[in-house]
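Subgroup meeting minutes
Present: P.N., E.W., G.H.
Scribe: E.W.

1. P.N. recapped why we're keeping a running log of single-chain structure predictions: easier to compare across weeks, and new members can see raw inputs and outputs side by side.
2. G.H. added today's entry (418 aa).
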Amino acid sequence: MVNKSILDNGIRVITERIPYASSVSIGIWVANGSRHEDRSVNGVAHFIEHLLFKGTERRSSLDIAREIDSVGGVLNAFTSREYVCYYAKILDKFLPRAVDLLTDIFLNSTFDAEEIEKERRVVLQEISMMEDTPDDLIHDLFHQQFWEGHPLGMSILGDVESVSGLSREAILEYKEKMYRGEDIIVCAAGNVEHEELVSMVAEQLLSVPGGHGRKPSALPVYERKVELVEKDLEQVHVCLGLKGVTQSEPGRFDAFIMNAILGGSMSSRLFQEVREKSGLAYSVYSYIASHADAGSLVVYAGLSPEKVDELMEITLRELRRFKNEPVSDSQLNAAREQLKGNLLLSLESSDNRMSRLAKNEIYFGAPQPLSQIMEGFDRVTAESILALSADIVDNSTLSLIMLGRVGSSTIQPEAVLI
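Output recorded in log:
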């Protein structure tokens, strides 16, 4: 059962009680991410995520680590384009300690100047590590290109220039502005009593100012872009993407099933054609990246430079198929059951349930019953996938980026057509 309360300052507290569980996963979510930054401070949301673990007035960074380790728990955080989450997973009897620890780092981190400089070096190393990992870098480059000129295109990590320029004052100003009550959601799933958690959280978090921090951004524009980035690598890394779906639009179920058929599993068309039948690549897959007001459908592969032309031929052919022929009943049903099964299996984990609570609140403003989601998958037909494909499989929104020794490819950008 899901329960929701709203504190006087607008903070939402949402719980799902799982009485047979022995653990509780709890997260403090802030519905502001990298897309809500100014370009001059790009990376600040992610930087703050790091800094909150560096010490408070009551605890040093070592104290924080020792306290969660001493109860066998997990304490971590992550930043995305649209939210930041600080979370803990602990045995249910230690929930009060987890609440105290999470709220302490959330409210009372000191942002010590020396710690800021040490963590700045850590984040700069994280940026360098990504740039040295081409199968990670290509996705960042793709989204920068796909959302060029829009905040969605900014890197979650920031870049060397923006992170190097973040002053303590700019960091504190951003946190004060963006960590506001109506953008904060506390979610917990597991063996938790709702009213008890509300009482614990209210005692700690009512000092948070109310209101919203973020401002609406303009809708992104989808445009055709093709870019070949020369880099001395053994492989060429390819990302090809199209307009996708938003987090809440009804067609998302069609998109999920279309993606599962295209490249979302080992039985998918791309995996079978590119890896199993042709032996072109070890890694090939597709994925959906959905946001509040936009989305993309992306295909990735990493392979030898001389095989790129063959990969592109197969990928474009498989995308065209969605526009030109209905998917078979067997493929549709298999993809449907795959996604249903994945969802049901994920709900055996309290941390996945906690994340689901938060994301449903951010994008829908309410819980999404499991039965409603299953019905959404059941409504997908071969005809509805054809209709979606007619909208998104379009040359006007196609973006392609290739990273590696691309000079050996005979691909002509103007000839990359669906």
